[in-house]
Request: fold
Amino acid sequence: MDDTAKIQALPIVTDKSQDVFDDLCRQTGFDGQPLIGEALKARLAARIDFGERKYGSRLMTYNGRDVLVDIDQEMLDGIQYSHQGTMEGHRVAHIRNILIQAADALAEYRRIMEKK
Reply:
């Protein structure tokens, strides 16, 4: 199913909801080091503040939206933006290429899940 233009309802909070950022900040890599550094954490916190003002809540799990559609749409936008950057002379083709690979991987995951 092609959900590239699907419009989803605004997120909701349920009894199962958990704060995504708080959990992300607790995650570590295989080396035991935090998954995200302080600089990225600050950038994410700024986006979260923006989201709270815009949507009235932070990103929570089980929010009534299809997370795979959200990921897909955001990656497709990222592919376009990063290619725009390459066209404007920024050396970000590697970022575009990683996003293309990630979008293809998500599409494959969705195909597998649909067969189950």
